[in-house]
Structure formats: C-alpha cells, structure tokens
Amino acid sequence: MEREIIIKNDSQELIRVAAFIEEIGEEIGIDMDLQMNLQLVLEEIVSNVIFYAYPEGTTADISLSTDFDGKVLTLILSDEGRAFDPTKKKDVDIIANPMDREQGGLGIFIVKNIMDTVDYQRTKGKNILTMTKIIPSTIKIQKNNSMTKIIKENGKTIIQTGERIDTLNATQFERDIEPALEPGVDLEIDCSQLVYVASSGLRIIQATMRTVIRELGGKIKMTHVSESIYKILYMTGFTRHLTIERSEK
Description:
Elements lengths: L1 E7 L5 H15 L3 H21 L8 E8 L3 E8 L26 H9 L2 E7 L2 E9 L14 E5 L2 E5 L3 E2 L4 H8 L8 E5 L5 E2 L1 H17 L3 E7 L1 H9 L7 E4 L3
C-alpha cells in the first residue's frame, strides 16, 4: 500500500500531514499510542523542514510518501532545501536537568527513539529521510479541541491542558499559562486530557520549570499523566527532575 502527499513549507500544512497519517493508520490498523507517536514523528521532522530548510520567504514543495508491506510502515520525506542530516544530530543529555539544558534537539531525539530505523541521504540536491516502524494492531484515534484552563484552589494553581500541545498551538499554550506564573506559585499541570505533546510543548514545560523554580521560587509538578505521555517524558529525561504523578487509568 503506497500513498503520497505534497505539501508547501507552511506550518498550516501540518494539519494536512496529521490527517494524512491518520488516514493511513485507519486503513492499516494501528493502536492509539502508536498513532500518536507517528503523528509526533512527522510533526517534528516536517516542522524542521518547514522552518529551517529554506530561506525566509521561499515557497517550496515537500514530499511525504508511505509504504506498508503488511508489517513495516515506511515513511519517506523529501525536500530540496539546505542539506541537513538529522541522524548526525547529537543526542540530548537526558540525565541533565531540563532547566540546565540548551533548548532544542528534543524533536530529533524523539524521532530516533520512536522509529525503528532512521536513514538520511542527500541525492541530486534533495534531502531524503527514510524512517521505518513495525506495526502491531488496531484502534482509532479520537479528537478533541478542549482548551487550556487555569484554576486556583486551596493555595494551589492548576493548569488543565487540552488534548494536544503541538507546533500549531504551543505558542498559544505558552500565552495561556503566563497568568499562572506568579512569585511562589505552587503549580500543578493537570494532564488528564493530554494525549499528545510535541517537542514544542516540551520546550514550554522546560521553560516553565526554569521560571517557576529558579525565578519565582515556586513549585511545579505534572499530574494525571497517561502512560503514553509518561513514556515521552521519561525518554527525554524530564522524569528525573520533575515530580510526575501518573494517571490511575
């Protein structure tokens, strides 16, 4: 089964990419966690091309093709932008405290940890990134457009996230939580609705940790964290330095 989509280097095209991989997932049958992981991988990789491969103001095509042989899903991303091999990117030091790390690099690190293989080639002026993933079984993803909420009760400030913190809404999420960042704040990020977080969201959590603990002298923790979100936080080293309470579901 082969499919292809051609998009422009515009961040709004990430919506089409998400819909494209969702259709693939529904057709071949994949479980919810893997569906989210594949969306995360493509958001990270495609975002890198959109934001960094071409000079500002340049409009260009990006090709995303898929092939499924009944067991292995192959994703191939092709563009004619600046040469860049993400497989050579130095891994994030997940042992280091997120507050002490330089921002950036989380996206590619996540991709390399989720996919079974990641291979880069520069051929005839094109960047060609080929990624593979073994696909087990089936369940459909659910959508929700719930918004971020801030609740203050019993001396604690609670940020209730929506279902997604991704490239398209991360900036808005950062604006939404800004009023909660007060001196001495006892901050809880309630993730009971959260099913998807991209590296753009992780960067905001990283920055929020630094602001709350080092600048405001407060406390911060994440609660009701699902297994799939916990895996991303564990993979990227947040579980070593941030109090995280997992969901009982």
